[in-house]
Amino acid sequence: MNRTEFIIATAVILFAAFALGWFAGWLVNRFTRVTRAEIGELDRMAQALHDAEETRDQALAFMATREAELESHIAQVQAELRAAMDGLRDARQETDGLRDWIERNHRR
């Protein structure tokens, strides 16, 4: 094999490798290409996800507001309960005092 044959054989091998690589790239591109329908579906999914996240954020905000309202109401009810219990305790003490006074005055 002389120098010219070697250069031609190398050129043919390099061209074949180039053609094979180009064909493989074309096949990969052909099979992995995203169609307009798939892009549309991805856009719809992205919009649905965005809407779901907004709804979740609104629900979390509502829950936080509602929780704060309920905690405030619980605190108010507990304060009223303490006041009622204090009033009941005072009324019992007054009743006991009046009973003692009546018993002392009734014996005389």
Folded structure, characterized:
This protein has a domain at 1-33. The longest helix is centred in the middle third of the chain and has 72 residues, at 36-107. The protein is built from two helices and no strands. The model has no long low-confidence stretch (mean pLDDT 93). Helices cover 94% and strands 0% of the residues. It is rod-shaped, with a radius of gyration of 45 Å. The N and C termini lie far apart (148 Å). The chain is mainly alpha-helical and 108 residues long. The protein has helices at 3-32, 36-107. The chain crosses the membrane at residues 6-28. Keywords: Membrane, Transmembrane, Transmembrane helix.
From the spread of the alpha carbons, the general shape counts as rod-shaped
**Helix and strand succession?**
HH
The Rg value, from CA coordinates, equals: 45 Å
- Low-confidence parts: none
Task: Please report the total strand number as a whole number.
Answer: 0
Count of helical stretches:
2
Biggest beta sheet attributes: none
What fraction strand? under 5%
How widely separated are the two ends?
Answer: 148 Å
Fraction in helix: over 70%
Mean pLDDT: 93
Helix- and strand-based class?
A: mainly alpha
Keywords: Membrane, Transmembrane, Transmembrane helix
Transmembrane segments: 6-28
Summarize the topology.
Layout (H helix, E strand, L loop, with lengths): L2 H30 L3 H72 L1
Which features does this protein show?
mainly alpha; single chain; 108 residues; 2 helices; 0% strand
Question: What would a concise description of this structure say?
Answer:
The protein is mainly α and 108 residues long. 94% of the residues lie in helices and 0% in strands.
